[in-house]
Every structure is written in structure tokens, then in C-alpha cells.
């Protein structure tokens, strides 16, 4: 009987301990990365390079996603609103939905898919080819040289990227509203300005900064801990993207409900 109970609880127990160990490793990695980010020397050239890679080169995919989503959202709000004579709510609902939710979340997911995988692949390749060990041998802290610039760049750039994404998303709704749904240009813009509040923008920026931190941390963590050659790098890349996606959605829920839910 005792053996049966032990066997019954053994598997969930091992899974729980493994999950707690993973959380502990991520927490220690995060603390070490944060300490490296505030401690000199600072590599400003690496920081600017990462800002370009994360922000500038992600702009096309984030911008296109925002425009298409804003346009589709306006069309759907018009169809849904027409069922209870609320078609006029299209500009207001579109701008609130884009700025508070869809702009930061979709932007974060797009950047996570592009940047987390690239970080994990680059750092993972450096790990399995012992380039990171070589940095340590040369008395260069890999956390300060490799991790900190990526972390700081992502936290700085994501809010700027989401601001652009929000503007393009609203523009997508504006184009569908005025060119297809028959809204007056001046009236649409006036309604958009009337219902957009500072809380909406601040919520969007806070989410973007948190998402940027998650994206960089997951990409660096999984890449830094790669092992097992090319196959290990592939697993790290997949894990980086999946974990970044899940954590972004979880963080979005927590921020939306607990911080900006009133």
C-alpha cells in the first residue's frame, strides 16, 4: 500500500521539483543579469547594436501586423456593433483595443518570435563552440558583454516599437473606417482623440517594457545554457520562443487585471 502511494505521487512530485528548480535557475540568472547591467564596464557600442537589431529591424513585421490587425478589428467592431445599432463606436473601441491590448501584445509576440529565437541561437552557438568560455578566459564577464546590452536594449526599444505599432494599428482602423465603412474623416479622428486617455498609453508602455525584459531574458537564458551541439541549440531556440510567448501572455493578464484593471 505504501509503495503504491509513493509510486502514485512520485511522478507529479518529480515534475514539481523540476519546475521549482527551473524557476530557481531563471531567477538566479535574472539577478546576475540585472547586477551586470548596472555594474561597469558598460558596452555602449553593443547596446546600440542590439537596439538596432531588436527595434529597427523588427519594425516591418510589427508595423504590418499592427496595420492588418487594426483594419480587421475595425471591420469586426462595425459588424458586431450593427447588431445593436452601435456602429458609431468603431473609432473609440478600435483605439482603446489597439492601445491597451492588441498593440503591445501582438508587438511583443512578433518581436519574441523574431528576437528571442535569434538571441538563443547566437548565444547557444557561442556556448557550444566555447566562445563564451573564451570570453571568460580573457577576463571579460559574458553577462556584462553579452546579456546586459540585450536586456537593456529590449527594455528601451520595446516601448518605442509599441508606440509606432499603436499608431499604425489605429491608422489601419482609420483606413477601413473611412474608405470602406463610410465614416467621415474629421469625425473619425475627433472621436479617436476624444476617447484615447493617458492611462491607455501608460498601460501600453508598461506592458511593452515588461515584454521586452521577458523577450531578452528568455532568449539569453536558453541560449546561454545550451548544450549538446546543433541539436541543443535548436532545442534552446524553441524553448526560448515558447517560454517568451507564455510569459508575455501571463504578464499581460497580470498587468491588465492587477495594475490597470480599474
Please name the defining characteristics of this protein:
85% helix, single chain, 262 residues, mainly alpha, globular
Provide the helix percentage: over 70%
* H and E order: HHHHHHHHH
Structural class: mainly alpha
* Low-pLDDT segments, ≥5 res: none
Shape: globular
Number of strands: 0
How would you explain this protein's 3D organization?
The chain is an all-alpha fold and 262 residues long. 85% of the residues lie in helices and 0% in strands. It contains 9 helices and no strands. α4 crosses α7 (185-195). The chain starts with a helix and ends with a helix. The mean pLDDT is 89.
How are the SSEs placed, and which strands pair?
Layout lengths: L1 H37 L5 H11 L4 H23 L8 H39 L2 H7 L4 H38 L5 H11 L2 H27 L4 H31 L3
Concise account of the structure shown:
With 262 residues, the protein is mainly alpha-helical. The chain has helices at residues 2-38, 44-54, 59-81, 90-128, 131-137, 142-179, 185-195, 198-224, 229-259. α1 (2-38) packs across α6 (142-179), α4 crosses α7 (185-195) and α6 packs across α8.
Amino acid at each position: 500500500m505504501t509503495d503504491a502511494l509513493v509510486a502514485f505521487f512520485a511522478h507529479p512530485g518529480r515534475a514539481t521539483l523540476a519546475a521549482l528548480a527551473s524557476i530557481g535557475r531563471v531567477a538566479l540568472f535574472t539577478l546576475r543579469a540585472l547586477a551586470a547591467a548596472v555594474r561597469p564596464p558598460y558596452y555602449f557600442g553593443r547596446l546600440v547594436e542590439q537596439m538596432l537589431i531588436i527595434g529597427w529591424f523588427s519594425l516591418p513585421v510589427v508595423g504590418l501586423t499592427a496595420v492588418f490587425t487594426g483594419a480587421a478589428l475595425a471591420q469586426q467592431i462595425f459588424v458586431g456593433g450593427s447588431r445593436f445599432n452601435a456602429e458609431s463606436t468603431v473609432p473609440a473601441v478600435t483605439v482603446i483595443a489597439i492601445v491597451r491590448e492588441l498593440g503591445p501584445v501582438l508587438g511583443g509576440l512578433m518581436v519574441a518570435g523574431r528576437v528571442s529565437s535569434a538571441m538563443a541561437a547566437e548565444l547557444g552557438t557561442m556556448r557550444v563552440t566555447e566562445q563564451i568560455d573564451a570570453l571568460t578566459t580573457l577576463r571579460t564577464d559574458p553577462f556584462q558583454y553579452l546579456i546586459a546590452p540585450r536586456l537593456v536594449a529590449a527594455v528601451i526599444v520595446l516601448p518605442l516599437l509599441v508606440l509606432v505599432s499603436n499608431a499604425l494599428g489605429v491608422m489601419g482602423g482609420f483606413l477601413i473606417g473611412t474608405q470602406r465603412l463610410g465614416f467621415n474623416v474629421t469625425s473619425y479622428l475627433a472621436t479617436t482623440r476624444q476617447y484615447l486617455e493617458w492611462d491607455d498609453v501608460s498601460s501600453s508602455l508598461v506592458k511593452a517594457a515588461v515584454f521586452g525584459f521577458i523577450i531578452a531574458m528568455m532568449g539569453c537564458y536558453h541560449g546561454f545554457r545550451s548544450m549538446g551541439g546543433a541539436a541543443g541549440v535548436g532545442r534552446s531556440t524553441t524553448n526560448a520562443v515558447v517560454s517568451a510567448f507564455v510569459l508575455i501572455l501571463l504578464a499581460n493578464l497580470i498587468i491588465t487585471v492587477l495594475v490597470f484593471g480599474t
